């Protein structure tokens, strides 16, 4: 473990939470998001008759088929070009974890927001196991130092624990993590691994660690706070790993490729800062930051780590020295 | 100071002040990269085609530099079959989709730009017809599905859904053996919802080869989907 990187991130998170990061409200909060999924009309030429189909109508059974994840509204729509589709409104979440390429979207039945958040978080934690196992394999294939490979494997084991812990919290609320489906992926280049590590690791896990730390302080129940404290510690270590992987991969990239990775990181950060949201009831129970606070935290993290400014100058990034950090007063 | 990121006491002080007074405004909204600003080889285009035997639904997502990209800056994304029938993929929830009237078992995804076009083939698995042993069932009866077996090695799974089922019932099969029997009790049918039509949707899925269309590690897949109905009586 690179203690310096981890310590630096921990100090950064502490400082961001201590300063509150509550400024910068970014317009009205939308605790829900709407997704539109294309709908293949039912047909069965030469076989048993299909059900009748009206592209402007949809029943609850088909809504459950398409919308999953605790949907709050579902409607049939016809898009330009006559494309039938299903519009699903679901509670928004900005959960923890490192998503592997090929992760299939889960389907969950209608649940209360906290249970849905925990079930989906358990699903993402389980998906992160795949992401880290794949990262370890890819690092090994690229000739990375054994200590980095070992840390990625350790992270996979951490995520296994998280999936179990969060899954238990979901189960206590009557929810279960949906089946995990991850498509196989071909081996990737150093650039592709670096881009994913930059977006999912450097940005995603750093933010996830920050959110988990927030939850460890603000969650309603002591059992939740204990679980999130443990997760926050591990996620910070995973973000530190992402930075160390980033530093090693940069030695394998051309300047142009490094610039592409920096831009990818900046875009991921900007997207996070504009898209973070959380359902109100889940927020209260689980100690999630409000949408305004979450977006402000994302922007503060971006600012503190210089992702956007570095992308504009197309320079590589590295974690700061912990000696350069001072924690401002709360 | 080195050339890399440095988080200094002064930058933290700025951070503390800015977060306290709302320094971060809503300017600088996120703008996704445009596909036309990249070489085709730099794009990560994942694509999936699903056929019901009469129409092909094609959905694609486009990425560049590790994040989602938009088809733009002069690019158009199309699906075509061998007869020349085509449809333009339109933006839908972060991706692109089109429905093409075609019974073809192979379609091409085409990225058209001023400088030329890139083409990739989405091959679909073997077509089939789904038969249900009964089209009107009673609670507690078995439900037998059958279709012509295939040795091509596609993944086969089915999902049953309807207004009288609280959750869709989904199963993956070990092999494409051509039949499956849903046992009594496997479907948690709500007797209070009557009459009820159950849709039985059988999928035959296969990975397709993505040859020469953007980043070759992107996932391409094809599926044949057939849906049959059964009326459930209490």
Indicate the topology.
The complex is a heterodimer of chains A (330) and B (234).
Chain A: H1 3-18, E1 32-38, H2 60-67, E2 73-79, E3 83-91, H3 113-141, H4 146-172, H5 190-218, H6 222-250, H7 255-275, H8 280-286, H9 291-305, H10 307-313
Antiparallel strand pairs in A: 1-3, 2-3
Chain B: H1 9-21, E1 44-51, E2 55-64, E3 67-68, E4 76-81, E5 86-88, E6 90-92, E7 95-101, E8 106-113, E9 116-123, E10 131-132, E11 136-138, E12 143-146, E13 155-161, E14 169-173, E15 179-182, E16 196-207, E17 220-233
Parallel strand pairs in B: 1-17, 11-17
Antiparallel strand pairs in B: 1-2, 2-3, 2-7, 4-5, 4-8, 6-7, 8-9, 10-12, 12-15, 13-14, 13-16, 16-17
What CATH architecture label of the largest domain in chain B applies?
A: Sandwich
The radius of gyration computed from the alpha-carbon positions of chain A, rounded to a whole number of angstroms, is 21 Å
* Binned strand content of chain A: 5-15%
- In CATH, what is the class of the largest domain in chain B? Mainly Beta
Poorly predicted runs of chain B: 1-29
SS class of chain B: mainly beta
Structure description:
- The complex is a heterodimer of chains A (330) and B (234).
- Chain A is mainly alpha-helical and 330 residues long.
- Chain A has helices at residues 3-18, 60-67, 113-141, 146-172, 190-218, 222-250, 255-275, 280-286, 291-305, 307-313; strands at 32-38, 73-79, 83-91.
- Chain A starts with a helix and ends in a 17-residue tail after the last helix.
- Chain B has 234 residues and is mainly β.
- Helix content of chain B is 6%, strand content 45%.
- Chain B has one helix at residues 9-21; strands at 44-51, 55-64, 67-68, 76-81, 86-88, 90-92, 95-101, 106-113, 116-123, 131-132, 136-138, 143-146, 155-161, 169-173, 179-182, 196-207, 220-233.
- The longest helix of chain B has 13 residues, at 9-21.
- Chain B is elongated, with a radius of gyration of 24 Å.
- Chains A and B meet through helix 1, strand 1, helix 2, strand 3 and helix 5 of A and helix 1, strand 2, strand 7, strand 10 and strand 16 of B.
């Amino acid at each position: 473990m690179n203690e310096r990187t981890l310590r630096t991130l921990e100090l950064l998170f502490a400082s961001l939470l201590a300063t509150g990061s509550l400024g910068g409200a970014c317009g009205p909060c939308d605790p829900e998001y709407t997704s539109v999924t294309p709908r293949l009309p039912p047909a069965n030429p030469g076989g048993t008759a299909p059900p009748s189909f009206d592209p402007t109508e949809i029943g609850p059974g088909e809504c459950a088929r398409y919308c999953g994840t605790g949907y709050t509204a579902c409607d049939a729509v016809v898009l330009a070009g006559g494309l039938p589709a299903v519009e699903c409104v679901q509670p928004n979440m900005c959960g923890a974890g490192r998503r592997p390429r090929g992760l299939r979207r889960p389907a969950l039945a209608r649940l209360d927001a906290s249970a849905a958040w925990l079930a989906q978080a358990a699903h993402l934690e389980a998906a992160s196991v795949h992401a880290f196992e794949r990262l370890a394999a890819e690092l090994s294939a690229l000739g990375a130092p054994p200590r980095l490979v070992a840390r990625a494997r350790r992270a996979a084991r951490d995520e296994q624990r998280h999936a179990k812990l969060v899954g238990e919290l979901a189960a206590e609320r009557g929810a279960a993590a949906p089946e995990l489906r991850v498509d196989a992926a071909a081996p990737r280049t150093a650039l592709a691994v670096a881009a994913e590590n930059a977006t999912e690791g450097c940005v995603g896990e750093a933010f996830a660690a920050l959110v988990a730390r927030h939850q460890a302080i603000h969650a309603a129940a002591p059992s939740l706070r204990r679980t999130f404290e443990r997760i926050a510690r591990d996620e910070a270590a995973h973000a530190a790993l992402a930075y160390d992987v980033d530093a090693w991969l940069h030695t394998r990239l051309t300047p142009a490729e490094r610039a592409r990775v920096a831009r990818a990181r900046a875009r991921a950060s900007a997207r996070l800062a504009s898209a973070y949201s959380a359902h109100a009831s889940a927020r209260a129970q689980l100690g999630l930051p409000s949408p305004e606070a979450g977006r402000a935290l994302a922007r503060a993290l971006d600012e503190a780590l210089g992702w956007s400014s570095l992308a504009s100058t197309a320079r590589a990034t590295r974690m700061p020295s912990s000696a350069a950090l001072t924690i401002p007063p709360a | 100071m080195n050339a890399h990121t440095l988080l200094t006491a002064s930058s933290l002080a700025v951070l503390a002040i800015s977060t306290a007074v709302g320094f971060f405004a809503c300017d600088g909204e996120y703008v996704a990269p445009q596909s036309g600003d990249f070489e085709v080889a730099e794009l990560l285009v994942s694509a999936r085609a699903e056929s019901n035997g009469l129409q092909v639904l094609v959905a694609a997502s486009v990425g560049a530099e590790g994040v989602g990209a938009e088809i733009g800056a002069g690019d158009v994304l199309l699906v075509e079959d061998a007869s020349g029938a085509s449809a333009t993929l339109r933006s839908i929830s972060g991706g692109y989709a089109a429905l093409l009237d075609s019974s073809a078992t192979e379609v091409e995804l085409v990225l058209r730009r001023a400088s030329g076009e890139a083409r990739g083939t989405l091959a679909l698995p073997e077509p089939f017809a789904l038969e249900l042993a009964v089209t009107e069932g009673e609670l507690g009866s078995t439900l037998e599905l059958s279709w012509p077996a295939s040795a091509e090695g596609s993944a086969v799974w089915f999902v049953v859904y309807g207004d009288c089922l609280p959750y869709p019932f989904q199963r993956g099969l070990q092999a494409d053996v051509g039949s499956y029997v849903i046992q009594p009790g496997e479907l948690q049918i709500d007797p209070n919802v009557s009459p009820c039509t159950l849709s039985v949707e059988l999928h035959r899925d296969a990975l397709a080869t993505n040859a020469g269309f953007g980043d070759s590690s992107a996932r391409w897949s094809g599926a044949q989907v057939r849906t049959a109905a059964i009326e459930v009586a209490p």
